[in-house]
Design a protein that fits this description.
about 280 residues, alpha+beta, outer membrane lipoprotein receptor (LolB), chain A, twelve-stranded mixed beta sheet, globular
Length: about 280
């Protein structure tokens, strides 16, 4: 998506948002939390994570009504992919924001490997000064900090603590949600429809569309999931948009799953570079 198209989409349907809602502050807050608290965006191995995306309940979808089989196919594919075998994950973030006729674009890519059966996961997000790394090994979750604490760069917490972290708020819920949180939200109240056939490198399948829109604020979340003929999730794309006539923002996250069943090796950081923290 180029910048002109992003600006056009952001300008559409952004004239009736109530005053006092600061979209850019919402996106900025999500990024600040990612830097300051090193939020668990990369914790792809957090099955059973609690969902706290506080979206309102009024829903609208521009396509036809959802079929139970479509919702079941989407939730089954994501559940199977995230819990039953190892995989690689490439996640691309692209955010656009407009304020006072000035457009800002923010992009970065994260790569992960995960073996949910053996409780192993590792994520790397090269973002310059905001670069981050995480690892999950058995019962422990490790988070890298560029600024050392007591001379040590890796914080170790019980993996169960990650499940207590929640992506809060309407925008932040999908700006920082793990795939497991996205799955829980889709299960809860998203409308799901069959979009049609799709194919990728070495696979064919079906694309499913989903979405929801808040009635009281100009918030819309929509996306698509590609499911191969083996019932595995291949590509998950989620876009969140909110804004008014002078401030607007849109965030797109594209998750690509691959290398199903490939061996995954993740080792804990060196003990002399690790400090422990409670939940």
């Amino acid at each position: 998506m180029d910048e002109s198209e992003a600006r056009r989409l952001l300008a559409v349907a952004t004239t009736d948002m109530p005053p006092g809602i600061d979209l850019l502050d919402g996106f900025a807050a999500a990024r600040q939390r990612d830097r300051a608290r090193r939020t668990r965006t990369g914790a792809v191995l957090s099955a059973g994570i609690a969902v706290a995306a506080a979206l309102v309940t009024a829903l609208t979808l521009t396509t036809a009504g959802s079929a139970p089989s479509a919702r079941a196919a989407v939730t089954s594919a994501l559940t199977r992919t995230l819990t039953t075998q190892s995989y690689h994950l490439t996640e691309r973030y692209t955010s656009y924001s407009i304020s006072n006729s000035r457009t800002q674009v923010f992009r970065y890519t994260c790569t992960s490997v995960a073996d949910p059966v053996r409780h192993l996961a590792a994520t790397s997000c090269p973002k310059g000064a905001d670069s981050s790394m995480t690892r999950t090994v058995g019962r422990f979750y490790y988070d890298y900090s560029r600024v050392p604490v007591h001379g040590k760069h890796w914080e170790r917490t019980p993996a169960a603590c990650v499940n207590q972290d929640s992506a809060s708020g309407t925008i932040e819920g999908f700006a920082t949600a793990t795939p497991q949180q996205m799955l829980a939200e889709i299960k809860k109240d998203f409308r799901v429809t069959v979009a049609g056939p799709v194919n990728g490198p070495g696979w064919t399948g079906t694309r499913y569309a989903f979405g929801k829109q808040a009635a009281k604020i100009r918030l819309k979340v929509w996306g698509a999931l590609d499911v191969d003929k083996q019932g595995r999730a291949r590509v998950l794309v989620v876009t969140t948009r909110l804004g008014d006539a002078t401030q607007a923002g849109m965030l797109t996250r594209s998750l690509t799953f691959s290398d199903f069943g490939a061996p995954v090796t993740v080792i804990p950081p060196p003990a002399d570079q690790t400090f422990s923290s409670p939940c």
